[in-house]
Design a protein that fits this description.
globular
Length: 150
Amino acid sequence: MGFWNVTYNDSSRWEAVESIAGPRIPFWRGIRETFAGRPLGSPRVNLVRIKGLEDLQAERLENGERSAINFLRTQSGFIAFTKIRLEVYAIPFQHDEWCMQTEPADGVEQLLKFNRKNQCIQFHVEASASAFDELKNWLNRFSQIDQTNG
């Protein structure tokens, strides 16, 4: 499975998420990183559709909701968070799974791609040009920095 419901504090679910993305960065280090201009959390954008995690997309469609998505840095990757109704879902990634971002020709939806072994996961998002640029720059910056600095 490529995502987990982390609404409730279930240590086995967090262990599964962290086995892919690496341990979450401790609170005290997060404060230091933020003050140094390296926030742990990404900007939030509107999630329109997910490709590659059909079960999660089906759940989103079943509830007829659009939701936000944002990312959290971990020691070895990222965790994407989105909500469906009142439940929070975590989608973990390793740094090297971040692939690219593109802007489709219609200029409305942007695309964030991650490649996980033999699976491509795509997040179709809506955001202003500046918000999207800020998010992709955040992903680019921390996928490179954290790979070299741990």
